[in-house]
Amino acid sequence: MNAFFAALLLADPTIQLLQQLADAHGPSGFEEPVRRIMVERMKPASDRLKYDGLGSVIAEQGDSGPRVMVDAHMDELGGVIRRVTPEGWLTMQMLGGWLDQALFDQRWIILGSKGPVHAITGIRDIHIVPQDERTKAYPREMVFLDVGAKDPAEVAALGIAPGDPVAPDAPFMVLNGSQNYLGKAWDDRIGCAVLVLAMERLQKARHPNHLFWVATVQEEIGLRGAHTASELVRPEVGIAIEGGVTRDAPGTHPEEAQELLGHGPAMFLYDSSQLPNRKLVALVREVAQSQRIPLQTDLVQGYGDDSAEMQKAGGGAPTINIVVPVRFTHSHNGIVNRQDFDHTVDLVVALLQRLDAKTVESLRAF
Q: How far is Cα 202 from Cα 197, in angstroms, rounded to an integer?
């Protein structure tokens, strides 16, 4: 760690939180390290804290007013060790929506019984790859993890066995002194950080709601924690906080995504899993304008989020998905912008302060 980065960490508790969350390893179904961080921050700011049967964290503030659920998911893309070959290689079952081309020539962490084990997914040497294969992407069936072992006995000595989780190895950094932060798992550790800071602010500020702050599990493999947590909360309004999808990377078509990094939070008007409540969309716009918060909108095919499960719970609830734009999601290295993050916290806090009983009743009136 260089001196500049060390000084930033000491001076800025928000950067400390973002680094802590991004660097924690928590593939779907193995969220324990992330959950420890979230509970440590959520419990002091809550009146009551409990869990659903899958391990999602449900923290309450207040006990009267509309039941408003604010959600972010703790899990990240990763994998699970499937088997060990006679030569000491490891095969991996992927967890979540990986592109095959993102899997090769990467560093990984295996969370074994004796602690973290470093691994790489190698790639065929260019000196032996036929000319007609050099421009092709390899399928995931060709992925093998190399931990430096020569046989199953050496693998076992490292504390690795089938079923152990695998996470990307991509440490957080402030990108060249800019307001952009590089790290893994921004989907959805950036949402987790928004949830924590908004919750802490509303512990000290007045609001007219019964708030349920929920950090869910297993979103990347089917919104599973959001389903079970929503059954317990039965929200009257649901707000998902997610990582978005930017269009400012080379090769991205504006019909595929509309967000730009550094241009403020966004709300989804459509994704493959849900359509937001139109009155809630209008309210978010109104709140953002009144607070002078820049607000983007997005419509993304091939994207699902926890608001889809909140939307269907308890007979149905108005929901919205509010996102911090992320460049390069579902990969080892993503980028977020600090101003986007800060504005998202401001927007969530202001929106929750507007959601009184009369407003919620109007959202649910058809």
A: 9
Kindly report the average pLDDT of the chain as a whole number.
94
Q: Is residue 174 part of a domain?
A: no
Give me the active site residues, please: 219
Looking at per-residue pLDDT, the higher value among 242 and 122 belongs to 242
253 shares a domain with 212? yes
Structural domain count, the chain: 2
Q: What does the pLDDT average to over 38-64? A: 97
204 assigned to some structural domain: yes
- On whether residue 144 sits in a domain, the answer given is yes
Q: How many CA atoms lie within 13 A of 97 on its CB side?
A: 11
What is the Cα 178 distance to its own chain's centre?
22
Q: Is residue 268 part of a domain?
A: yes
Please check whether residues 343 and 332 belong to one and the same domain.
Answer: yes
Both structure tokens of 29: 């179904």
What is the per-residue pLDDT across 174-202, written as a single tens digit (0 to 9) for each?
A: 999 999 999 999 999 999 999 999 999 99
pLDDT tens by residue, 104-139:
999 999 999 999 999 999 887 888 788 888 888 778
Bridge partners (DSSP) listed for residue 264: none
Q: Are strands 237-243 and 319-324 parallel, antiparallel or unpaired?
A: parallel
Which residues have C-beta within 8 Å of that of residue 122, sequence separation ≥ 6? 104, 105, 144, 146
Write out the residue range of the structural domain in which residue 311 sits: 3-76+184-363
Which of 103, 138, 168 terminates a domain? The answer is 168
Q: Is the model's pTM score more than 0.70?
A: yes
Q: At what angle do helices 13-23 and 32-42 cross, to 10 degrees?
A: 150
Same structural domain, 216 and 310: yes
